């Protein structure tokens, strides 16, 4: 598996260096045409639950607790995690998200989870 899992806003233009581009948000980002997204996969099922997403509200002071709760959701979501791990075994994958905050979003938390649990 890759040791580096890049994370990028979907609003940034696709680049060859992205490898396979995977959107990891449950909701399609506003203003992005599907044909322009250059996605290999939209993996809605790996995104945080609606309840967790709404609770977090992208408030940085909730970041640590969000990561803890999201990791628990990921632990219980073996199929979606396995699907993403399979893509990672095939080569470079860039996780895409729509949030404004580049440090506190589900894609960052997901990349961290995958790196910390390489075979889970």
UniProtKB/TrEMBL annotation:
Q: Which PANTHER family does the UniProt entry name for this protein?
A: CYTOPLASMIC PROTEIN (PTHR36849:SF1), CYTOPLASMIC PROTEIN-RELATED (PTHR36849)
Question: Whose protein is this, by species?
Answer: Mesorhizobium hawassense
Could you tell me what this protein is called? DUF488 domain-containing protein
Pfam families recorded? DUF488-N3i
Domain of life assignment: Bacteria
